[in-house]
Task: structure prediction
Amino acid sequence: MHGWSADTACTPEHAEAVTAKTHADDHCALVLLDRAPPHERIVGYCWIDGLGNKDAIPMLGIGIIDEYHEVGMGKALLLLMIEQARMLGLDRIKLGVWADNPRAIYVYQGVGFQTEPTLPAKEFDGRAEIYMVVATGRDRIQQPPQPDK
Result:
């Protein structure tokens, strides 16, 4: 779920494929639209998959087209999905990122993701993917005060 270039900008068909799982019980997603004329288009998305697996940390994926990098949209999507995860009752979520992508790692660290030593890196076509985890803050939710008895 890495960004696209302007040459491969997300088409309605691509967006439909990416968001097709949104109705699945173990998945939730957000789509980022640019509604500026001359036409509306999808410029990013973020999802969490694996919500039904109590034995694993659900996985987050994100994609922002290149021309929308460096303007805070990725950070905004990440923060929204962390909040969504908290509202869904999740303690933590994880993501995979190429070890040779310092720009993405910087963004992920900026919203609280940290490298997870219990999740070893994996090799894909000669590139290492590392895994980062963020706590949703669900354990810090204030409970309403209880009346004295």
The helical segments are 12-19, 73-87, 102-110. The domain at 6-138 is CATH 3.40.630.30 (Aminopeptidase). Residues 1-6 have pLDDT under 50 and may be disordered. Residues 73-87 form the longest helix (15 residues).
